[in-house]
UniProtKB/TrEMBL annotation:
Transmembrane segments: none annotated. Residues 351-429 form the Putative collagen-binding domain. It comes from the Bacteria. This is Glycoside hydrolase family 140 protein. Keywords: Hydrolase. InterPro entries: Apiosidase-like_cat_dom, Collagen-bd_put, GH. Residues 8-341 form the Apiosidase-like catalytic domain. It comes from Blautia parvula. GO terms for molecular function: hydrolase activity.
Amino acid sequence: MKKLKVHHEKQYLMWEDGTPFFYLGDTAWELFHRLNREEADEYLSLRAAQGFHVIQAAALAELDGIYTGNAYGDKPLPLCSGKVCLPGTQGGAFPEMEDCEAYWRHVDWIVHRAAELGMFIGMLPCWGDKWNKKWGCGPEIFKDPGSAYDYGAWIGERYSREWNIIWILGGDRPVENEEQESVTDAMAAGIRSRDTEHLMTFHPCGASCSTDFLRDKSYIDFNCCQSGHGLEGYESWKFIRKMQEEEEKPCLDLEPRYESHPACFQPEYGVFWGEREVRQNGYWNLLQGACGCVYGNHAVWCFCRKKDQGHLKTWREGLLEKGAGQMRYMEKLRLARPFFELRPAPELVEQEEWCGQYISAARGDTYAFLYTPYGQEIKAHLEKMGEGPVLCSWFDPEDGTVKKKEIWPPCPVALRPPDGGRDWIAVLDQMRAKI
């Protein structure tokens, strides 16, 4: 079985043979619940063509996924008098799942189709309202460690032999007390009792990090934040830095601003995040040292079929929005230079302390990347890269091409992108480096 591992320096993910793995993910939380197989194939095939490697989806979905069933009407868990038959709800042992096999065969089919297309499923065993109904549909099924462990063991066993699984605990909810922490620990332990091969992480609520709730947990292989869709997490790179400072593990922004999402969840403002905001979070995080990038579209994650005030597009229209096609260029940039060398390099630039104007900088041994989010001038300290001239190539994040090249002496310089008003990446190479 092909296998992902954590790099020995605990910064990035890699394949077992040492090849870098760039986590390029798409959020499709309602995939198992809302799409039939023909639609799922349509979705997966297009995302594979767009270069995505991980599809994030919840096995027990958020939007009334327990009672309404999937696209075929199949339900994921047995019901007794309209309630889920699990410990803590009916007081019995974890039930046999034969009556729900049709639902899980559909999940199996999607997992296998993703594998055929070379993609992972970032599998949430359940959405967070199933163990902390702070908001949402619920029901709050997993109220005690026993039920969480048994379900974790069941789903862990079912997918333990599939190469393309990454486990994602949590599901957009905070861990607020010891009981919820014990439920999360137990679900992880249940999965690990059957599956020790696949990586595991935690998807927290907005503007928070997995290290806020589950720091020093051995079952967390890489940490994740959700910078989210409001202003609290606008400068998402700060969350990446926070996780790096708190724990020596790879880290990732599992849910940054979605394309076409109403800003601050308020469609009445008339402002919807677009491709520019998607790229900003992606490159800010990337150059802070994130182990990849995750994209989301507000019409796609819930597979919206009818437009409304908060959803300006259907899911099929959302699939083709510009930001989704531009995510692959982040991976192109990262793989163009030695992958495991890259580290944050704030010493290379001078910052202006204005929200949204942050110029992110990272470097390897003989190269550096500088990201200007609005095309503003970059005051760069090229003398800190070493002796000899520096070649500056301007990488266009809209189409992945290089628009202009310049040569500068190793001294403080003002770098100006080909045109202002939008984002650019200055790719710096010492002239002794291979170009």
